[in-house]
């Protein structure tokens, strides 16, 4: 997967998206904290997210992996093309094997490519990973770090990985080379006097910029009365159940045959 692209409403500021990342639409009211219906008040329903944004004047920022979305779409197209062809033209047990295979593969592809997202709201951080959704009130977050993966740490010694914010070592090396080049003096005096030498954001890898923005938001929002509470974790049974069912049916068909 490639670097995450922030999704936000025009009223919210977020890190700049690099090439290869495409923002999704409707993050403030549609794909923000209330994007998952039925999660409960801890995660924020659709109406709760709208009222929260209206009261705080802050629209949720949504971070996704553009490369993951593109790759997942290509894999889904291939699996569906092969599966549908086997259903239509297959004979004997082939259609049943194709159906069970699609039932197992499609949820897993969606889980690891299209599902991951990070929703940064005024009061909480919502992490949507392949098999879990984690809601962290900012008051419970102690740190957000990016080493080989981006992780959020809580006061109860919890650690949660942000799948939608992959760390690219190649981007880090490129950013380090840019910092090295810009650290030297300009021997020809071509550097503009209006250049912002304190702008470190443009010389950081995307994952590091995202981590810095989330850490800054956590520090600023941790003292809010509405940002207090304990972490809430919900398993994504809508992904786990069909994938497990498809795997069981596929295994039975292979063993019986």
Our estimate of the beta-strand percent is: 15-25%
Unreliable residue runs: 8-57, 191-199
Largest sheet at a glance? 6 strands, antiparallel
Q: What is the CA-based Rg, rounded?
A: 22 Å
Counting helices, strands and paired strands, the structural category is alpha+beta
Q: Secondary-structure map with pairings?
A:
Elements: E1 4-8, H1 46-56, E2 61-65, H2 66-89, H3 94-114, E3 117-120, E4 124-128, E5 132-137, E6 141-146, E7 150-154, E8 159-161, H4 169-183, H5 206-221, E9 232-235, H6 237-256
Helix pairs in contact: 2-3, 3-6
Question: Briefly, what is this?
Answer:
With 257 residues, the chain is of the alpha+beta class. The protein is built from 6 helices and 9 strands.
Keywords, separated by commas or semicolons:
257 residues, alpha+beta, six-stranded antiparallel beta sheet, three-stranded antiparallel beta sheet, 6 helices, elongated
Describe this structure in words.
This protein is of the alpha+beta class and 257 residues long. It has six helices and nine strands. The protein has helices spanning 46-56, 66-89, 94-114, 169-183, 206-221, 237-256, and strands spanning 4-8, 61-65, 117-120, 124-128, 132-137, 141-146, 150-154, 159-161, 232-235. The strands form two sheets. It has a six-stranded antiparallel sheet with strand order 1-2-3-4-5-9. Strands 6-7-8 form a three-stranded antiparallel sheet, with helices on one face. The longest helix is centred in the first third of the chain and has 24 residues, at 66-89. The radius of gyration is 22 Å and the shape is elongated. The chain starts with a strand and ends with a helix.
């Amino acid at each position: 997967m490639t670097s995450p692209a922030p999704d936000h409403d025009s009223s919210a500021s977020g890190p700049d998206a690099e090439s290869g990342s495409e923002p999704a639409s409707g993050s403030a009211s549609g794909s923000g904290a209330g994007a998952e219906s039925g999660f409960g008040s801890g995660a924020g329903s659709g109406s709760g997210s709208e009222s929260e944004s209206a009261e705080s004047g802050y629209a949720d920022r949504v971070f996704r992996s553009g490369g993951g979305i593109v790759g997942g779409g290509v894999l889904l197209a291939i699996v569906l093309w092969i599966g549908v062809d086997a259903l239509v033209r297959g004979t004997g047990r082939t259609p049943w094997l194709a159906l069970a295979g699609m039932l197992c593969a499609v949820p897993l592809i969606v889980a690891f490519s299209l599902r991951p997202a990070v929703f940064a709201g005024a009061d909480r951080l919502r992490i949507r990973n392949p098999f879990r959704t984690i809601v962290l009130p900012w008051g419970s977050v102690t740190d957000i770090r990016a080493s080989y993966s981006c992780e959020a740490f809580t006061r109860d010694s919890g650690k949660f990985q942000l799948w939608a914010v992959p760390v690219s070592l190649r981007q880090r090396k490129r950013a380090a080379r840019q910092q090295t080049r810009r650290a030297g003096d300009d021997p020809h005096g071509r550097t503009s006097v209006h250049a912002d030498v304190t702008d470190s954001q443009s010389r950081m890898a995307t994952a590091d910029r995202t981590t810095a923005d989330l850490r800054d938001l956590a520090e600023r929002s941790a003292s809010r009365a509405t940002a207090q509470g304990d972490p809430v974790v919900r398993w994504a049974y809508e992904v786990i159940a069909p994938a497990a069912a498809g795997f069981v049916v596929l295994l039975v068909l292979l063993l019986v045959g």
